[in-house]
């Protein structure tokens, strides 16, 4: 019985980690695919629209069926929150992110998003979703890790250095091209603004789930309104250019379908589920995994270069983020296990033949002292 409870407890602890790792793997494939699609002329504004349209049509049937019992009545307050959510991430963040990627590279864009946990941490602290005790070493680790994350992002943005992997010839060409550095700075600013919007989305999603706990339905609503709002933005930005809306059986269609299913519908749902128990900072703390995967895939698939300065900045970001994760490791305590132990009736006592003795172990996580409550 004890082994069963230990296995179950381990599985419950592992589920959030499996979910966020899966999200980052999905984002890594998205970065490489979307960069390749935009290199072939796909508009980032139109891409966002198709992506969320696909996500809505895929996830809506599941939301209608599985959320019947948990979906609350839609109110004006909840609808306004969903409208803001669909504007923050599907429209503002993604358009800025892919626009910044156009000016830089897929690896650079993925690395810049590693400031997301720092921004989320600051917003969560301001809104009292994250607690800090100055004298606690774990709270100090959260603050130091956050500062290291921002510092690493600045190093990665401003430092370039020699090429570690890739073609040196293309590096020499870029050093003589003055617009390359300008594009890098402009791209980093655009992506940073997008990350701030993304952090606001994660915080507001955590707040919205408290009054609208149907995670699948919330994801479907976000994708639907994101499609409508994104279409309005795309019509303005791509006015007079109807050819950008055409799709064929090529990489552009594959990119829209994949990112819609995996990176919008499934991702919004998984991070909502994890956020209910672990909070918004935990969800965003695993972004470095995306950067590592993107760097590897971009080097082999897109032939992107790896520079020393960006590698140093990336290492600083990773170290800072995992200091934050260590600082948050004690913020979550699993529910205490309940163990039932049957006790055989005493000999000669016929009136207690069907009596059982329950022993409930209640653990006080503040003091670390376990007490036992007996019920007859």
From TrEMBL:
UniProt keywords, alphabetically: Membrane, Transmembrane, Transmembrane helix
- GO CC annotations? membrane
Q: Which InterPro entries match?
A: EamA_dom, EmrE-like, WAT1-related
Q: Where are the transmembrane segments?
A: 45-66, 106-129, 141-165, 185-204, 216-237, 249-269, 281-301, 307-326
Instruction: Tell me where in or outside the cell this protein is found.
Output: Membrane
**Which one Pfam family would you cite for this protein?**
EamA
Q: Primary place of residence?
A: membrane
Q: How does it sit in the membrane?
A: Multi-pass membrane protein
- Ranges for domain EamA: 25-155, 187-325
Report which superkingdom the organism of origin falls in. Answer: Eukaryota
Matching SUPFAM superfamilies: Multidrug resistance efflux transporter EmrE (SSF103481)
Give this protein's Gene Ontology molecular function annotations. transmembrane transporter activity
The family this protein is said to belong to: Belongs to the drug/metabolite transporter (DMT) superfamily. Plant drug/metabolite exporter (P-DME) (TC 2.A.7.4) family.
Q: What is this protein called?
A: WAT1-related protein
What organism is this sequence from?
A: Abrus precatorius (Indian licorice)
Lineage of producing organism: Eukaryota, Viridiplantae, Streptophyta, Embryophyta, Tracheophyta
């Amino acid at each position: 019985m004890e082994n069963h409870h230990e296995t179950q407890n381990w599985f419950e602890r592992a589920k959030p980690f499996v979910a966020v790792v899966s999200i980052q793997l999905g984002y890594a494939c998205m970065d490489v695919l979307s960069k390749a699609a935009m290199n072939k002329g796909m508009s980032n504004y139109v891409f966002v629209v198709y992506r969320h349209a696909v996500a809505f049509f895929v996830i809506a049937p599941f939301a209608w069926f599985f959320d019947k019992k948990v979906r609350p009545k839609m109110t004006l307050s909840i609808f306004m929150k969903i409208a803001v959510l669909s504007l923050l991430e599907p429209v503002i963040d993604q358009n800025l992110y892919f626009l910044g990627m156009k000016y830089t590279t897929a690896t650079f864009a993925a690395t810049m998003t590693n400031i997301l946990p720092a921004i989320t941490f600051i917003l969560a602290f301001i809104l009292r979703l994250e607690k800090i005790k100055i004298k606690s070493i774990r709270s100090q680790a959260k603050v130091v890790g956050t500062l290291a994350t921002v510092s690493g992002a600045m190093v990665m943005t401003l430092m370039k250095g020699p090429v570690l992997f890739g073609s040196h010839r293309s590096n020499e060409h870029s050093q003589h091209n003055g617009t390359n550095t300008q594009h890098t700075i402009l791209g980093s600013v655009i992506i940073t603004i997008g990350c701030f919007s993304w952090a606001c989305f994660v915080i507001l999603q955590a707040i919205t789930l408290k009054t609208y706990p149907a995670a699948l339905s919330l994801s479907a609503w976000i994708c639907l309104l994101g499609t409508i709002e994104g279409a309005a933005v795309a019509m303005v930005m791509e006015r007079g250019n109807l050819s950008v809306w055409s799709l064929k059986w090529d990489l552009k269609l594959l990119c829209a379908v994949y990112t819609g299913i995996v990176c919008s519908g499934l991702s919004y749902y998984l991070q909502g589920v994890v956020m209910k128990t672990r909070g918004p900072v935990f969800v965003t703390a695993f972004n470095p995994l995306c950067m590592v995967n993107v760097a590897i895939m971009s080097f082999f698939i897109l032939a992107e270069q790896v520079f020393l300065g960006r590698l140093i900045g990336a290492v600083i970001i990773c170290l800072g983020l995992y200091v934050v994760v260590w600082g948050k490791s004690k913020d979550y305590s699993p529910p205490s296990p309940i163990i039932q132990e049957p006790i055989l009736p005493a000999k000669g006592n016929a009136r207690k033949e069907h009596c059982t003795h329950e022993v409930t172990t209640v653990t006080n996580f503040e003091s670390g002292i376990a007490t036992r409550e007996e019920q007859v």
